[in-house]
Structures are given as C-alpha cells and as structure tokens.
C-alpha cells in the first residue's frame, strides 16, 4: 500500500479519501476547511496543515478541488516537495487549457500528471463506484490506474493531457441538453393529456430513451428512484451542471466548435441558478420549465 497525498476533502474528495484509507493506503490529507479535515481524520486519514506536507514523500497526489485556479494554486505551492516517482492525479472538473498547462508545468519538473475527472456524484464517491476519464501518457495512466481503481468501478484512458476533461465536458453537454429535452417533453405531454407514467412507458422503450429518462427521471413517482422523488434534494446540483456547461462553452470557443444546444442548455441552467434554484438537483429544472409554459417565470 502507498503513501497518498489527498488535497480537497469536500463532498466528493471526502468519500474518495476515505475509500483509499479503507483500502489500506496511508492517506495524508489536507483541506482549508477544519470540518473537512476532522471528517477525513475520522475516516482514517492523517490530517495535515498544508498541501506541501501532504505532497511530501507521497507516491501519488490526488486533488479534488472546485476549479482550475485552485488546482494551479495548490500545485504552485506544493510541488516543490514532489519527487520524480510521484504521480499527480487531478480528479477535479476543470477547464481543458488549465489541465494541459499544469501537466506540462509538472512535466518540466520531471513529474508525471494525469487529469482524471469523474462521472458519478457524492453517493458514487462514497460507494467507490465512480467512473474516471483519464488524460495523460500511457505510462502516467498505468501509474495512476491502481489508485483510481481503489475509488471507482470504471477507469478509462481517454487520450493525452486534457482528454479526460474533454470527455467529461462533452458528456455533461449531452447530459444537460437531454435532461432539459426530457423535462420539457414531460411537461408538454401532460398538457396534451398524457399521464407522466403513460408517456414514460412509451418513451422509455422508444427512440426517446436516454439516461435522463430511464435512470434519472425528472418526474416524481415515475421510473426508478431519483432526486425527483426527494423533492430534488441531493444528486447533482444545477449549479455544478452550469459550471460544466460553462467549461464546455469555453472549450468549444477555443476550438471554434458549434454547440447551439449546449449554449441553450447553459442559458437555461443560468436562469435556474439566477432564480435561486442552483442548489437543487439539475433535474429540478423541470419546475422552472413547467412554470415557463404557464408564463409565470422568466
Ligand atoms: P466541494 O466544494 O464540496 O469541495 C472542494 C473542497 O476543496 C472544499 O472542502 C474546499 O475547502 C477545498 N479547497 C478549496 N481550495 C483549497 C485549497 N487551496 N487547498 C485545499 N483545499 C481546498 O466540491 P465537490 O462537490 O467535492 O467537487 C469537487 C470537484 O468535483 C469539482 O471540480 C466538481 O466540479 C467535481 N464534481 C463534483 C460532483 C458532485 O456531485 N459534487 C460530481 C462530479 C464532479
């Protein structure tokens, strides 16, 4: 088992670090939040007072931070203590450009890095069932894989640096747009006299079938259990979907790609957040769309 530095012990990182400790790794943990550090300690990690201490002597350094600026800052402040034998694994969802830049900066110091963003939310982080999409060289991927295997059920090598982030952003562009299309179709079907259950029974086995419909139906009481059945609490926050769609729009601009559906989805999730609903699961946007059709909300 290895010494692992883990930086960023929030909603996702807390469960991931706990799983590494459960697997017997010596997890050296750091977060700016004292509460997060206390939870990590209770889960068997060694709490430390700086990122540099977490990196010192670590075989792998895993970061699970809010955005690219945080990853850049943590790397800048702590990589002095990393050795050529250290593998850097950034699991945060960040922009493709920063992911490539931090990996190149690390390579210039002789340190290998991968971007390894995740699919799956807080429950999957706790259960150790995340999917990791990994960008980096074959050799760096091979070094990162055993650690990712200990936190997830699928680990996929997507390509070179930034490819993991690219896969994540493109996946969530489809997810955001299909969720909105699924929501608006349910609202329209009901207004046209179809019960949600009847429409589900038809569409879920017809050409409209998608993960948003059959695994995560936005209508309460229809399909398997989903955040809709918990008043849209928990799950994947609309604010995080908005973050990912904004990253996808930036990436699209950088490579001059047309993303009209993604842009519309971004605007709608922006309106959802502006209406103070960004803390709800992203399928809760069905409420805003239902109100829009009534003409009572902007
Ligand atoms: P979070 O805000 O709960 O956790 C982030 C943690 O990073 C916090 O505990 C914060 O104190 C810590 N932090 C910030 N700056 C730091 C620094 N300089 N040094 C040390 N610690 C620092 O966020 P989260 O929900 O755990 O998400 C983490 C990442 O995972 C994000 O990039 C997010 O987009 C991605 N993600 C989240 C989900 C989800 O469902 N929450 C799903 C997939 C991907």
Number of strands: 9
Low-confidence stretches: none
Provide the list of bound ligands, each named once: nicotinamide-adenine-dinucleotide
Largest sheet: 6 strands, parallel
Topology order in helix (H) and strand (E) letters? EHEHEHEHEHEEHEHEHHHHHH
Span between termini: 54 Å
Chain-averaged pLDDT: 96
Shape: elongated
From the alpha-carbon coordinates, what is the Rg to the nearest angstrom? 20 Å
**What count of helical segments does DSSP give?**
13
- Secondary structure category: alpha/beta
- Beta-strand residue fraction: 5-15%
- Helix share, percent: 40-55%
Strand order in space, largest sheet: 3-2-1-4-5-6
Describe the structure.
The longest helix has 29 residues, at 163-191. This protein is α/β, with parallel strands linked by helices. It is elongated. It starts with a strand and ends with a helix. Helix content is 50%, strand content 13%. Strands 3-2-1-4-5-6 form a 6-stranded parallel beta sheet, with helices on both faces. The protein has a 3-stranded mixed beta sheet with strand order 7-8-9. Bound molecules: nicotinamide-adenine-dinucleotide (NAD). Nicotinamide-adenine-dinucleotide is lined by residues 7-13, 30-33, 36, 51, 64-66, 70, 73-74, 92-93, 118, 121-122, 236, 240, 243.
């Amino acid at each position: 088992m290895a010494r692992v530095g883990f930086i960023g012990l929030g909603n996702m990182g807390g469960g991931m670090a706990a799983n590494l400790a459960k697997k017997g790794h010596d997890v050296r943990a750091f977060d700016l939040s004292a509460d997060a550090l206390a939870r990590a300690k209770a889960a068997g990690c060694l709490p430390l007072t700086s990122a540099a201490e977490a990196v010192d002597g670590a075989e792998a350094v895993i970061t699970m931070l809010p955005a690219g600026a945080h990853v850049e800052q943590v790397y800048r402040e702590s990589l002095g203590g990393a050795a050529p034998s250290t593998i850097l694994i950034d699991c945060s969802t960040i922009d493709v450009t920063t992911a490539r830049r931090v990996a190149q900066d690390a390579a210039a110091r002789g340190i290998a890095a991968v971007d390894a963003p995740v699919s799956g939310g807080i429950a999957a982080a706790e259960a150790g069932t995340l999917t990791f999409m990994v960008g980096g060289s074959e050799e760096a991927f091979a070094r990162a894989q055993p650690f990712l295997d200990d936190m997830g059920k699928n680990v996929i090598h997507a390509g070179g640096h930034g490819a993991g982030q690219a896969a994540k952003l493109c996946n969530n562009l489809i997810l955001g747009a299909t969720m909105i299309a699924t929501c608006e179709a349910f609202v329209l079907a009901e207004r046209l006299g179809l019960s949600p259950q009847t429409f589900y029974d038809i569409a879920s086995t017809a050409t409209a079938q998608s993960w948003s419909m059959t695994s995560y139906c936005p209508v309460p009481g229809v399909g398997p259990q989903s955040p809709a059945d918990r008043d849209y609490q928990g799950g994947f926050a609309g604010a995080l979907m908005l973050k990912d769609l904004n990253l996808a729009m930036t990436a699209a601009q950088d490579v001059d790609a047309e993303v009209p559906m993604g842009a519309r989805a971004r605007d709608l999730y922006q309106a959802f957040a502006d209406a103070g609903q960004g803390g709800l699961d992203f399928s809760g946007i069905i409420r805003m769309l239902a109100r829009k059709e009534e003409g009572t909300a902007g």
